[in-house]
Amino acid sequence: MSINETKSEEFHKTALIIGSGVGGLSLGIRLQSLGFKTTILEKLDGPGGRAYTKKIKGFIFDMGPTVITVPFFIEELFSLEIGRDNLNLPDFSSESLKSKNIENTSTRKYVEIIPIKPFYRIYFHDKTYFDYDGDPENTRRQIKDIEASDLEGYEKFHRDAEAIFKRGFLELGYTFFNSASEMFKVLPDLLKLDAVRSLFSFTSKYFKSEKLRQVFSFETLLIGGNPLSVPAIYSMIHFVEKTWGVHYVMGGTGALIDGMLKKYHELGGEIKYNAEVEKISLSDKKTFFSKPSVSGVELKNGKKIKSNIVISNGDYANTYMKLINNKDRRWNKDWKIKRMSYSMSLVVIYFGFKSDKSLDLRHHNIILGPRYEELLSDIFNRKILAKDFSQYLHIPTITDKSLAPKGHHAAYTLIPVPNNASKIDWSVQGKILTDKVLSFLDNEGYIPGLQKNLVHSEFITPDYFENTLNSHLGNSFGVEPKLIHSAFFRPHNRSEDIKGLYLVGASSQPGAGTPSVMMSAKMTARALASDFENSIAAWKGK
Ligand SMILES: Cc1cc2nc3c(=O)[nH]c(=O)nc-3n(C[C@H](O)[C@H](O)[C@H](O)COP(=O)(O)OP(=O)(O)OC[C@H]3O[C@@H](n4cnc5c(N)ncnc54)[C@H](O)[C@@H]3O)c2cc1C
Fold first, then answer.
1. I need a surface site. Which of 28, 144, 159, 325 has the fewest CB within 10 A?
2. Run of H or E including 29
3. What is the per-residue pLDDT across 24-59, written as a single tens digit (0 to 9) for each?
4. What are the start and end residues of each CATH 3.50.50.60 domain in the chain?
5. DSSP secondary-structure letter at 366?
6. Ligand 1 centre and the CA of 448: distance in Å?
7. Sorting pLDDT into bands at 50, 70 and 90, what band is 465?
8. What is the distance in A from the centroid of ligand 1 to the CA of 90?
9. Number of Cβ atoms within 10 Å of the Cβ of 419
10. What letter does residue 115 receive in the DSSP assignment?
């Protein structure tokens, strides 16, 4: 009998997942395939969490993730069937995994995924740009135009970042760092690869040009990491994109969520909306020798649901501090949780506009402001709202006209801002920043005539992340990805405090971003499969 199992007959094969983000849905699909009877309890009126979809005036806005990478993680989910789980670690050396084309017919039944090029157009403050598409020749040509003497540095960067990708992603990506010894085993390798210094300082070793330092370090912002402080192990993102490309799901990321939900229902999973969990119920008290066990949850509407397995897809700090009494926890104490750093937050403006001319923009545009390092320090360290800003402008209707009425574009632009430790009054500043950004896009010629042609605009601020998505301090990406919050030091997918409690999603290992969150679901499913191996074996044997 394994560690979390009591008696086989006590295991009802029921599991409750709090939250229907990409992590919650991925885990739901996995648990159904393993024979669990799973119910997802979602606070909102629809699925997706950060990937929720807004539909208004004929526009479809994906509220969150838009850059889809590592498509075979999606393929793997759609290929699962009841009794045909797949908890094996992928063989990254296999040729089929290196293929960038989505050929898998089981995926096509749910979603259509297409590659996007360039991956990003990165505008510098002087309006020159760099189209990054993963092609070394195109990259070299553009580096030559910016700073020819950095070509040699690029070759070295490419080689060193590839070595980090091989060790950090291909070999260690799925490691569940449950103990410090597992972490210390890999540390010498990471030190040898220089992967623990800050990403920006790592890129600065190879590039003299400020512009190129920015091109090769900004990507961690898309998962809430400060390039000035995330470890250089995150240079692997560059290689993840180069190896498998950047993709788009036709119909938007909402179509991916719909596909996942369809798969989950087909496997027999249930989901309840408007079902906010207010408390995780425990059956025993903590003693010096034993930890309490999960016995179910209590919803805000007073309803109680029993289960000896509860998995939280919600924010780590919120799960422990708001749903479980501090005295019932030995390790994840309030004082420790409060001392951790939480990722930056965002103001995101969703807008639709009339457009009769073609736009001189790409599907994914990064528009950098006049300051890079100083702005990052304002956001992450000083926690002040700067006068200048950088943004990620997403215009999916350049690829997919179905997201807007004829002759219109649907877009969002995302501006990194400090989380709510800043005490900024967003009820005032949200509107001011939104107006400033929209007039910038118009007046600086990125979207000429935007204000005149605007049909719809609305925005969210850190308050949305804090109050609607229940994220501590309104963080947008969970616990900040820093060295001291990585691997073993990142919240564990199997709770060390409560028997039967697990975490999945951006706050837990390995981290934020849709591919990582899908990996997290596999790691949590592996932990559950090992804790309940006898019951699963008995179910499979029936
Ligand atoms: C604007 C934005 C853009 C992004 N862009 C990208 C991108 O391009 N590419 C990429 O890979 N990643 C991107 N990310 C990051 C990525 O979206 C997230 O890391 C990922 O979607 C998080 O998924 P998750 O499963 O951890 O949970 P979440 O999406 O955070 O979902 C958690 C769910 O739990 C629910 N919940 C919380 N508390 C309770 C409770 N008590 N009871 C019931 N339900 C509860 C919430 O309502 C929510 O639905 C972006 C994030 C944002 C915000």
1. 159
2. helix 22-33
3. 999 999 999 999 999 999 999 999 999 999 999 999
4. 1-112+246-340+479-542
5. E
6. 32
7. very high
8. 25
9. 27
10. E
What residue type is 229 in one-letter code? Answer: S
For a pocket test of ligand 1, which of 299, 310, 313, 415 has the largest count of ligand atoms closer than 8 A to its C-beta?
Answer: 313
Q: What is the DSSP letter of 292?
A: -
Amino acid 12: pLDDT: 56
Residues with CB under 6 A from ligand 1: 18-24, 41-44, 49-51, 64-67, 222-223, 276-277, 313-314, 346, 348, 414, 469-470, 476-477, 505-506, 512-514, 517
Contact 265, 247 (CB under 8 A): no
Looking at 148-152, 276-280, 406-410, 538-542, which range is the least confident one?
538-542
pLDDT at 1 (0 to 100): 43
Pair of tokens at residue 481: 């990805």
Question: Atom 37 in ligand 1: which residue has the minimum CA distance?
Answer: 314
pLDDT of residue 168: 76
CATH placement of domain 1-112+246-340+479-542: 3.50.50.60
Report CA(93)–ligand 1 centroid distance (Å): 30
Nearest partner of 214 among 204, 229, 225, judged by Cα: 204
Closest of 386, 447, 512, 461 to residue 22, by C-alpha:
512
Q: Write the burial class of residue 541 (CB in 10 Å: 0-12 exposed, 13-18 middle, 19+ buried).
A: exposed
Closest Cα to atom 27 of ligand 1: 21
| Whole-number pLDDT of residue 93 | 64
- Measure the CA–CA gap between 403 and 156, rounded to whole angstroms: 42
| Positive/negative CA dihedral, 97, 103, 105, 107 | positive
CA distance 155 to 152: 5
Nearest to 468 by CA among 10, 52, 28, 23: 52
Residue 458 backbone dihedrals phi, psi, to 5 degrees = -150, 165
Ligand 1 pocket mutation pick from 30, 50, 120, 469 by most atoms within 8 angstroms of CB: 50
